[in-house]
Amino acid sequence: MRATKDPLGKTGDPLAGEASKPPPNNVPPPPGSADPADSTGPTEPARSAEPRAAAERPRRARMDIQREPVGNRRRNLLIGAGLAALIAIASLLAALEPAAPSVQRNSLLVGTVERGSFNREVRGPGTLVPEQIVFVTALTGGRVENVWAQPGQTVADTTLLVMLSNPDVQLEALRAQQEHTSARARLVALRRDLQTLFLQQQALVARAAADHADALRLARGDSALLARQLISVNEARRNQERLVALEVLLSTENRRLQLLDRTIDEQLAVQEEQVRRLASIVSYQQRRVSSMSVSAGAAGVLQDLDLEVGQWVQAGTTLARVAQPGRLKAELRIPQTQARDVQIGQLASIDTRSDSIRGVVRRVDPNVQNGSVLVEVRLEGPLPAGARPDLSVDGTIRIERVEDVLFVGRPAYGQANSAVGLFRLSDDEEEASRLTVRLGRSSVNQIEILEGLALGDRVILSDMSRWDDVTRIRID
Predict the structure, then answer these.
(1) Strand-pair partners of 114
(2) Residue 439: which residues within 8 A CB-CB, separation 6 or more?
């Protein structure tokens, strides 16, 4: 610490002047000293005496003591109190539940839980189709020369629809006729040859029989002549050997005649079968030529005839359909999740938008296509005037009647035998709270309640999937 030097040139020790330090502000001045702060009107002598006393006191080193201002302490207290208030408010807000979203009342579909019985039904779209449909197909390919009818026209079985042409078909028919004619000529030649052979063999048999008879007479006469020694023994033996040879020859010719007689019919039968086969080919080729004049084939209403002149059609192509409008059936598409309960013989109701037709399930397709099963319904009773093929309808099939159960209207997203979240209305119907409900058997418009709801509860049936993340809503 550096020593200070007074104006008179004397060096003073800072520690030596500790006792001469001015008193702090909060220490009262010694008696007899004048306080400028307490004096309201000091006199002039007092003012002049203070500098003189200060000049007479020796100069001593003075040290300053740092003190905290009173204003900063008050400000720190206020900041701390504000932070504590903010923390308390944040904790209170975190403990509060989020505000429930509001939903317009007129946009909601509300149902009431009831107890009783209801009909289990399944519903699906479909169309009316004829029970008997005749498909008019092209027996052979050809070029469309003329179209004589239009879709929707009532036709008879002989009504001409389309005229086709194909030179190759006509050429094949001519070749078939030629082969058939050749086969018939071969049959005639074969029959002639066989008859000639048969007659020749008969002649041979007759000649052999005559020779055998002559030899037999000689052999019989040789015995008497040999006894009288009118012929030699060698001649008699020669005649006997000739008789034996002629007997063998006659037997052989007879067998040949019998064999020829049997084979004549078989050979003719083979050739006749060939002729008949070629005749069938000729008949088929003639039908192909005739089929190019396409007729309806059945009486009814013509459908799906969409051909243009000059168009080429392949063999087997469906050219049109002929439906009998008086005999219709309904083909319904039932979702595969509901089709497992559909059985043959169950009652059905077909809605044509203007009339309702009773029916009975006749067939259930075992295959699933595009998530649905085809169910065929036989219509009963007279058909309404508006019923026609390909008419779009809605079908409802009655599965069973459920007795004495809790049920409610079917929610938009509820499935049978599942657990879903439903919003139940409060008593004043100003709010709704989510709860888990276990569903049972379902119908078109109702579904069974197994757990989660009581009789008289009112729940929201509309689609509430947009509120899946909340447990409570407010209804305005």
Answers:
(1) 407
(2) 414, 415, 416, 417, 418, 419, 420, 447, 448, 449, 450
Q: What is the pLDDT at residue 355?
A: 87
pTM: 0.51
Q: How far apart are CA 133 and CA 331, in angstroms?
A: 14
The per-residue pLDDT for 9 is: 42
Distance, CA of 31 to CA of 98 (rounded, Å): 72
Residue limits of CATH 1.20.58 in the chain: 167-291
Domain 105-129+324-475 CATH class label: mainly beta
What tokens were used for 158? 């002989």
Start and end residues for every CATH 2.40.50.100 domain found in the chain: 133-166+293-322
pLDDT higher than 80, residue 14? no
167-291 sits in which CATH class? mainly alpha
Which one has a higher pLDDT value, 107 or 171? 171
Strand blocks (E) in 138-207: 142-147, 154-155, 160-165
Domain over 133-166+293-322 is classified CATH 2.40.50.140: no
Residues of the chain with CATH 2.40.30.170: 105-129+324-475
